[in-house]
């Protein structure tokens, strides 16, 4: 699967892996800066450096480590993806891992974002399928006053963006579930629906693993005591918390609904089979009548008076048709046919 | 679905979106006031302003924000529905979100109510299908003495009203479950029942998501420490807590009962199929007798003495009837037919 | 369902709704008193008034409220049944709600008991199907020394009685489950068993809802800090706690056992169906032999040498019987017939 | 079920119900003493009295109560079995209830042991099927140095013995599960296996109820603060804790495995039925060929040229055999036969 | 099953059971030492003795006990395997139990490692199938600076190695699950897949029991307060914690996926059966036509005009073929054939 998102974002800056690198003061972009000067800018009072990376190589991460004095373990984590969403505190710096999700070709594409947040800097490292944080940057630059709060506001904005991006994914799944629901209840479920139900369950499982640990991350961010997180930001992080809990609730609901759909599908399938067996039994009974009667008059006994009666054949035909017709009417009436 | 509730309530006041706006003192209605003077009235000692809104627009909310100095995030939440039930504290003001439920055309219609409660004012914002709080207002005005407690009593009265409204919804579901139960156990379950069972499970899931988070909201209200909540109100909020817990218990019970009904339905379906297979097998066996016997005497061998015996035909007929009758009696006896 | 329990207890005292009303001192019954003097007696040092009511009307409750200064919300609760088991503290008085259960006509009949316990008085209010507390009263009067402890001992005695009454209910269900178990494992399960299993599951659910919240009530009673509960009573309440926990454990076990029985029943049903299908298939195969062979020799070709052979008919009969016999023996051997 | 264990142990001492009664000092048995002197011996400094009872009568328990000043409720509990495993503290004495389990005739036999532990004495009361604690006594007497620690060491030794006795029970179940597993996966599962699976699930449920509450008992024993439990014993009780947790883990695993086995058995049963239906369908198709063809040539039309063709019969036979053979080969190839 | 791992590691040192025994100072290997001098070396300032054992006998463990003054219970545990993963603190020494897992012949082979960690020494005892810790030793010797931290770093390195070794096991299971998934959804599931699904579920259960208790061990190691664990090691242990939590999450996901696969397989099986029943019914209907018609014209009535019509036979054949063809087309169209 060639991912256009990846191609689009990886090369938008001079150095490969660097998507954006700018210094801000009082909520205003002061300068586009090279990575090499990032540490210097971040130490200027009232300045915040915001760097966006996409699948950086080790060398680039090492340079950032030197600039901002990042912790060795965080760098190792940022190099390889496949981390659980978490919040680590290394001295005065925070390291946040979040997993992103978006619909891509009818299936969910997962990505990972690692955030280094410290005094005067925010570094976001994206892995896999994940949209650029350009819209976040633009929104921050627009909300100049709030943005002037500094690096914790950027952290908030990115987390908010990630959580908001779960919504359309859930919406898509919800729509599809409702569609399958209709076909299950309308007795037209096929193997394709079974397959789709199965895939949706797997996808939801992955989505839950991606999203739910963020609840804990947000819970810690809304409580006081983390370095660099201003207590006035508390309501904002609580707002993100709320959204991610709503996402969690939706996921759990969908999981239950899919389980219900499975069970219902089993029952519908059983009913279907019963109906077919009934139909089979009905037609077998109806067709057994001419076979049995005709068999009798096909016997070769010397003395079989009916055979020599002029209207014998006609009467037998009428009897057969009458009995078959009566059976058909009966089966029809009690719903077997 | 055109919702008459919506139409009925949205226009009962001068300004669109405003359902009621009055000032109270010592539990007595002092004046119907325009929104613009609400802030002023709320600051008079011993006065409480109670405003009821229905799906207000942004402008109206902004005005209220100015009057009562409401928090930005709460205003944003109040504008769009789809919040989880919660209790937020912004400075000295409380922001409560609750979801309402009522039966509408045989299905549950959900609504949302947002409450702003602060020193001297209560603002209720309704979204979607939810009955007007006019009865609450009337009841409060009747219970003058208790009402004079102020804004926390109004909060209690509205929450109590919301929780009480869950009861008939649950009652309706309960009745329907019992009806389906009878048809499942009476072996007359059809696809319609399966569909209905499925819908009930989904509805209960939604009802649970709407109601259960209120338990936490009430738990916090009954404990001391929230601004503007008088400790003497504690028993009242504990009473609401008790009711919502009872609602929760009923929902959980119904969920289990529906799961039992599903399983039982599966077993009944299986038994039904077994019965049909038995019937099919029995009739196949009975009808195979004339076919086989007649087939034998339909053979064209030169030497078949029975064929030339005078009573051959009659004896064969008797034998066939006897065997068939005996089989029928046997199948009847062991319950296959 | 006319409930004889109700009729028997409701009229055993002068005033309707009052079952008993007596004053005790040092564990000895001092006087049968009218309700109107109850408050006065309860305030005499060393005296305890114990009143037993059955579905009282509002007027009677109001009078008690005046006598003992009971809380408004407790009175409201006591008037209507359908409360969750709980322990409320209103000032120096306790309000306890418990649900009772007893077997009645093969199904569980549930009742509710509300207890007001304060300095010098205990009022028990029974609703629905529940035995009189006369045996408790007699037992207390017999255990004079322990009884002299006062109102907390009465509370203990009633709770102990309620919890002990769950045991025969559970025992009855257990017996019935074992009976159904035998019929399921012995492959004679019928629709009646399915229906009974379903009803037992529902009843157990109700019993759990009635009994399990009492665990929390007892837990609070065994801990110090409640008004009027002497710490020396702690081991007694811990004993009730233990019993109710045992009841809870039994209920959970029975619930699991019923779930197992359901699953096993599904498997047994499946096995039964497989067996019938096998029988059907076997007989179809056996009977297809004469039909096919006879069909062949019923053909009217001019040249069919076997037909003119003297022993043709006999040989064919022998062949048919041999093949059918061999098939029968084979099916028998591998257990299909 | 006559239980030989019971007969063997109940009469090994002079008085009925008393299995052993000895005084120890510094880990050495000082004297076999009569019950009547037990209290006296227990108060001698450095002495411990260890009494073993089996289903004692009330009189015997009353005497012990007088000797060691035991709590009334503990005596009542010790008289009747059917207690939950628990640890009660009455003043300076401990009362411990544990349930024992051992294999007996292929099913688990459960017993109960009550332990009174106080300054200078340990009384063990056994109910139902449970091995004598003679081996424990011997082991303690052998480990003289550790034993000199006193009554808490005896408590540890008995609990350790009880927990160790769960292991062979679990081992037996495990072996049986593996055996059933093989037969389920090898498609030879029968009704007997279903019955056995069901019984194993019930037994495991009982075993869990017996064993798991001991986790809590041990947890409290390993923590400081209980009277008469020396903190140096902590690692020993933690060891028992560890073993019982391991037992718990094994039980939970077995429960899950049995649930898996049930589900797998359902699937195997379904597959079996599908296979039979396929076989039935295949043979029905094969046998329908001669029936249909022979039927055609059994018709009595005047003009049927094939009938008069010399090789007609032979050709028809060949055609029938060819088609049947071809069908057989096809069904064989795609696995239906 | 002869385990080559065992053979390979058990004899790599002079004494049987001893795999390696070396003293380190400042992260550098100072000397290969005999067991007898281990205690002495461990007490030299700045020195750490690291001993690797594989299934040692009692004598060897007793010697180590004397050298490092190990606790009796830990020695007993280390002698027999089958411990739950745990962390015990005996005075100033830690005793850690972990279970290892690796793929071996398509199934998971489990082992156990016991670690004694105290001032100046680390002893690792391996049981069952588990790779040697030689790679850990080499990695430690390479990371000289970190290694100079001492015995807690060795503990970290071994735990990290154990946890990392779970990953390929999970990966293998994941691959197999995906393979089975494809065959289930592609309707080609066979009894072999059912068996494999069952085995995977059992294996995952065992893996969970082996891995998940390590979460608790790591959680305690990352918190301050354990003897000999330097607080600067906290981030490293938190890193191991993170990995084991990720392993846990993967295991839980796989367990759910396998449960989904089971359910889906049941539905697919049901659908398959329905399809076969449909096919059977269709062919039975088609073949019943010639049988019934031919039966009619096989009757021996004197007066059957069609029989004497010249084109009778041909017309009947055409009628039969037409009806059969029409039925075939109809069944084809609605998907029954």
TrEMBL record, chains A, B, C, D, E:
TM regions (residue ranges): 280-299, 311-329
Membrane topology designation: Multi-pass membrane protein
Superkingdom in the source lineage: Bacteria
Pfam families: CorA (PF01544)
GO CC entries: plasma membrane
Keyword field contains Ion transport: yes
An example molecular function term from Gene Ontology annotations: magnesium ion transmembrane transporter activity
Catalytic activities: Mg(2+)(in) = Mg(2+)(out)
This protein's UniProt keywords: Cell membrane, Coiled coil, Ion transport, Magnesium, Membrane, Transmembrane, Transmembrane helix, Transport
Coiled-coil regions listed: 237-264
Subcellular location(s) of the protein: Cell membrane; Membrane
Gene3D superfamilies reported in the protein's UniProt record: CorA soluble domain-like, Magnesium transport protein CorA, transmembrane region
Keyword Membrane belongs to the record: yes
Entry function: Mediates influx of magnesium ions. Alternates between open and closed states. Activated by low cytoplasmic Mg(2+) levels. Inactive when cytoplasmic Mg(2+) levels are high.
Family per similarity comment: Belongs to the CorA metal ion transporter (MIT) (TC 1.A.35) family.
Name this protein carries in UniProt: Magnesium transport protein CorA
Source organism per UniProt: Microvirga ossetica
């Amino acid at each position: 699967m060639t991912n256009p998102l990846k191609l689009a974002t990886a090369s938008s800056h001079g150095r490969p892996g660097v998507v954006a690198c700018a210094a801000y003061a009082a909520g205003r972009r002061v300068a586009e800066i090279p990575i090499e000067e990032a540490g210097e800018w971040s130490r200027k009072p009232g300045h915040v450096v915001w760097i966006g990376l996409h699948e950086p190589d080790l060398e680039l991460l090492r340079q950032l480590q030197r600039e901002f004095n990042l912790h060795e373990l965080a760098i190792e984590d940022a190099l390889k993806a496949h981390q659980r969403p978490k919040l680590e505190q290394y001295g005065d710096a925070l390291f946040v891992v979040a997993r992103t999700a978006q619909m891509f070709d009818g299936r969910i594409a997962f990505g990972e974002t690692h955030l280094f947040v410290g005094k005067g800097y925010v570094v976001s490292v994206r892995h896999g399928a994940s949209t650029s944080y350009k819209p976040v940057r633009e929104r921050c630059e627009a909300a100049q006053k709030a943005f002037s709060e500094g690096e914790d506001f950027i952290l908030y904005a990115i987390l908010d963006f990630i959580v908001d991006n779960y919504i359309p994914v859930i919406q898509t799944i919800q729509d599809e579930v409702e569609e399958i629901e209709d076909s299950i209840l309308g007795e037209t479920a096929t193997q394709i629906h079974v397959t789709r139900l199965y895939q949706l369950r797997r996808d939801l499982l992955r989505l839950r693993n991606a999203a739910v640990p963020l609840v804990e991350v947000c819970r810690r961010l809304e409580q006081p005591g983390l370095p660099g997180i201003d207590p006035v930001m508390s309501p904002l992080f609580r707002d993100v918390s709320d959204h991610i809990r709503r996402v969690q609730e939706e996921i759990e609901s969908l999981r239950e609904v899919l389980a219900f759909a499975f069970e219902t599908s089993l029952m519908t399938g059983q009913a279907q089979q019963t109906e077919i067996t009934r139909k089979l039994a009905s037609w077998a009974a109806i067709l057994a009548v001419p076979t049995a009667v005709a068999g009798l008059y096909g016997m070769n006994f010397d003395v079989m008076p009916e055979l020599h009666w002029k209207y014998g054949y006609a009467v037998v035909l009428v009897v057969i048709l009458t009995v078959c017709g009566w059976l058909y009417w009966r089966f029809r009436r009690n719903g077997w046919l």
